[in-house]
Design goal:
Layout: H1 2-22, H2 26-43, E1 49-57, E2 65-75, E3 80-90, E4 96-107, E5 113-114
Antiparallel strand pairs: 1-2, 2-3, 3-4, 4-5
């Protein structure tokens, strides 16, 4: 009987610990929402541009899902890597608003900064 109680306690404890690990953070939600929209908009402007990684930081005390994001991209045909700095937010109706604040580009071969 003691073994069954111990096993039940271990299973419940592991379920409680595993639940928060699978929940997405507000920053992850914002990044996952932003990446396809940026890809869609920039696809028509820059041929071959692919967003490789988008990460967002949302302040812990933020009432809305809003924060600063970093969107890394590459353009393989011209050997270009770059990063857009983005401010993004999801309003109460679930609509995403965003704008870029800066962009930096580097040569993919030499890793030196180049003009975008």
């Amino acid at each position: 009987m003691a073994r069954v109680r111990r096993l039940a306690a271990v299973l419940i404890g592991s379920a409680v610990l595993a639940a928060p690990a699978s929940a997405a953070t507000p920053g992850q939600i914002l990044a996952a929402t932003l990446k396809p929209l940026m890809q869609q908009q920039f696809k028509s402007k820059v041929r071959g541009l692919v967003f490789t990684n988008v990460t967002c930081t949302v302040p812990a005390k933020s009432k809305l899902i809003a924060g600063h994001c970093r969107a890394a991209f590459s353009v393989k045909r011209v050997k270009l890597l770059g990063v857009y700095q983005v401010v993004a937010s999801i309003n109460a109706k679930g609509r995403l608003g965003w704008h870029t604040t800066s962009v930096t580009c580097t040569d993919a071969v030499s890793h030196k900064r180049i003009p975008c």
